Amino acid sequence: MALTESNMLPLGTEAPDFALLDTVTGKEVRLESIQSDKATVIMFTCNHCPYVLHVNEELVKLSTEYMAKGVSFVAISSNDVENYPQDSPEKMKELAEEVGYPFPYLYDATQVVAKAYDAACTPDFYVFDGELKLRYRGRLCPSRPNTDIPVTGEDLRAAIDAVLAGEPVTEKQYPSAGCNIKWLK
């Protein structure tokens, strides 16, 4: 696994639309059905990446806290499941239920959505305002596996707080880093 950083989609970009399978409910989820008029957080993630596993507990905590404030969250896995079967929709459902994801966990089988968002790694975070304009992209916080830095979600929390307050998000945004998305051959 190669450590890969975010591509840092330009701020102000409008959220690309999508319609993907929610692996937990078996239903199609469209961006318009989950977007919030306050803020929408889109995360690219997967089941097996140690960088994602490292932050899963904080993702559940943070999303639960901010969903109560009207922020919407969705996680998307775009990995090649033929070569990485642990990222299959069935395994995604198992993980979502085991970890307690309070948000939809969507499967991007064609990888069209990951490409539209210029996603590069897992985890990769995007915060859109109520008009679906990109205000933040990058990391959850500075913590990584095998470091003594606690997982706080501080970078993502600060971005969401700024959007909710109608204030500018800091321009100093750090890329996320993790496993590269496993692209189809």
Q: In CATH, what is the class?
A: Alpha Beta
Oligomer: single chain
Strands, total number: 10
N-to-C SSE string, H for helix and E for strand: EEEHEHEHEHEEEHE
- Strand residues, percent: 15-25%
The CATH topology label is Glutaredoxin
pLDDT below 50 for ≥5 consecutive residues: which ranges? none
Percent helix range:
25-40%
**How are the strands of the biggest sheet laid out side by side?**
3-2-6-5-4-8-9
Going by helix content, strand content and strand pairing, the class is alpha+beta
> Mean pLDDT across all residues, rounded?
96
Total count of helical runs of at least 4 residues: 5
Largest sheet: 7 strands, mixed
Radius of gyration using CA atoms only: 15 Å
Fold and architecture overview:
The protein contains 5 helices and 10 strands. It is of the alpha+beta class and 185 residues long. It has a single domain, classed as Glutaredoxin, CATH 3.40.30. Strands 3-2-6-5-4-8-9 form a 7-stranded mixed beta sheet. It has a 3-stranded antiparallel beta sheet with strand order 1-10-7. The model has no long low-confidence stretch (mean pLDDT 96).
